[in-house]
Amino acid sequence: MADIDNKDQAEMDPADMEDVEDVEEEETGEDENSKARQLTVQMMQNPQILAALQERLDGLNGSPSGYMESLPKVVKRRVNALKNLQVKCAHIEAKFYEEVHELERKYAALYQPLFDKRSEIVTAAYEPTDEECEWKTDEEEELTDEMKEKAKLEEEKKDEEKENPKGIPEFWLTVFKNVDLLSDMLQEHDEPVLKHLQDIKVKFSDPGQPMSFTLEFHFEPNEFFTQTVLSKTYKMRSEPDESDPFSFDGPEIMSCVGCMIDWTKGKNVTLKTIKKKQKHKGRGTVRTVTKTVPNDSFFNFFTPPEVPENGELDEDSEAILAADFEIGHFIRERIVPRAVLYFTGEAIEDDDDDYDEEGEEADDEEGEEEADEENDPDYDPKKDGTPPAECRQQ
Q1: What is the rounded distance in angstroms from the CA atom of residue 76 to the CA atom of residue 83?
Q2: Taking the complete model, does pTM exceed 0.70, yes or no?
Q3: How far apart are CA 172 and CA 58, in angstroms?
Q4: Per-residue pLDDT reduced to its tens digit, 322-355
Q5: How far is CA 244 from CA 24, 61, 241, 356, in A?
């Protein structure tokens, strides 16, 4: 057989031999590529290598690529001219946002009568007509006339059994509790106070005045404080920073000013009383000392940290103000204009759509991983601490 093979090989055309050599070289190249891929995977699974790579990438972040340094001087000169044009663009953009603010003020006056009527319905100052209360839901459109009549009778029966509430009780408290950003600020002792909240209004600065907006929280007379309106003003700036004009990205909140709350004695939810036992070093006697200390509360929202004239803040104050600005902007932009949708939860579902999609992708990936494990001939479930899907507790 060996002789036959040698004979066949000797009789092969030289061109055919070249083809064989090419195939062998290609196979060798594929083996090398496979080994390289395996080595890359092993490296990427090494936490030390990943940490070093991330550190390197962090060092590169925001640093020039080196391309600019390699440009001829005459080209760099022209790039500088482009930068000067960009600065002028930033100033025009600032003017644009100033006019947007003027438009917001104009349309706020058009929205306000609608918001006032909303407040009247919530507080039972106005009872809407049957025509104003008509609203077809998707479920109702699918029901037959007979089913609609039956549902209407059942609804009327339920209403007769219940007490007739005035307006929409706890409207704003429900809105706050439905929104994570606001509910995180709420404490249990805040809820009795916020049950008296009747309306939230946004007031814009007057024409010609520095850009700002004020949030007004309107309360009915209550046992907790003497005011009926608590306010907070956010001062804004819409102009590029001379030291860093390219960072301009629209108006930014520079500072905010709250208000002093005139709490009724014993009703201040932003303070709490604690008792501490102290032991005398010499006599060994024990006494109880009562102290008043700050307490977590939504109403701390009205006493933000003051921004010094030099603008320098410690890290804690910066974090508090950053969160405060986000909350103030959210109340102005989303809560006040769409309060009823946050009350019903519809606006929250819209906000969460993107997160649901990410969650579905994560679930799919998890399913793929499980499938890979099941298809792996070397996979041993006994060595895996995770119980099989059918054994997991629901």
Answers
A1: 11
A2: no
A3: 44
A4: 888 899 999 999 999 999 999 999 988 766 554 5
A5: 60, 18, 5, 38
